Amino acid sequence: xxxxxxxxxxxxxxxxxxxxxxxxxxxxxxxxxxxxxxxxxxxxxxxxxxxxxxxxxxxxxxxxxxxxxxxxxxxxxxxxxxxxxxxxxxxxxxxxxxxxxxxxxxxxxxxxxxxxxxxxxxxxxxxxxxxxxxxxxxxxxxxxxxxxxxxxxxxxxxxxxxxxxxxxxxxxxxxxxxxxxxx
Length: 183
What we know:
Order of helices and strands: HHHHHHHHH
Shape: elongated
């Protein structure tokens, strides 16, 4: 039985019930957070590491949760920050953009058993080419279907800025897929 958010917060707040609270929090939110992180990071193993880091940070910093937003919003923000840190590490370690493009072309060639899979791979590659803010807004809106006001709380941006970033990101993704899809 999954607990409601208020019950999880209550368990996390109690010194004797905190460990149970963490288990309940992980049970309630790990799938949604994993897929959010996975869309940003792409690699399964790295996404799992970032998810684990997210829950560790939430455990260590739960005393900073002010309850002025939902617990999920707070966790989502931690997950986003952890994913961004991982992406920055990856950028520093990346040999060159040419290597990444070559690997992606090989991945498309190996895995494109159907048009739908090829388009999905193109979509993922298109998203990875977006500037950081546009990538975040696009994944939160397109995949997670979060309302702009929720994204605004997570990213600490105005709704107008988010809508603009989403519009540009959507246009860039559409253009990328159209220009790179070979039917």
